Amino acid sequence: MKRLLRTITIILLLIVSSSCSSSLQKAEQQFNNGQYEDAISNLNSYLFFNVTDVKALHIRARCYEELGEIEKSKSDYERIISIDKEYAHAYGGLAKLLFEQKDYEKAETMILRAATLNAEDFDIMYLLGRTMLMNGKFKKAEEFLRKAADLNPDYAQVYYYTGMALAYQGDALGCAASFNSYVSREPNNMVGRYNRGFALMNAGFLKWALEDFDAVLAQNPKHTEALAKKQQCLNYLGLASAD
Prior knowledge:
The chain is mostly helical.
């Protein structure tokens, strides 16, 4: 009788384990498909039996983040850290929340911790570079953004921010090369040209910025942002008003 009960218990545990695994996989698929509320519902059920599963907590934190429920997302990231102090993406997740709240100093502390745990993750290196840029640490920003570019060389935005870091260091040729790399990878060339012009203008390279705004306006003469930025450049240069 005892042997029978033990066998039944083992079978039930295997069924529950299989069901939980299936539930986690389904939740992950729902997250990837943008079905965040459905994913959270499945994860809540899964976490009832697997309270310390950091992967499930991470997916739920990302779901909350996508839904704008920042405090719940933060709570899950903090829960992960209490379980596993070396889970890099929990620190990265908190850093991203802080970055989006414009708390760049605290974001830097968090993302540096993430980078010490995983220096080969693109998302971590990319956010670290952007955070350094916002904190005025331009050389460090360049270093980490170049590392991010090595990890994912086809991601256009990393070259945009590298260009900004170089521009703020006064490296005109370097920033031009980086912005060219950005434009060549940006699927929408007009968006790329406008963004490059905007960055060049902010860095003080007004004549180069004008070339980009003119290129955008040649494609779309009613592009109001490009018109406004072109006018600003002309005003700074003391030239005639834009048409």
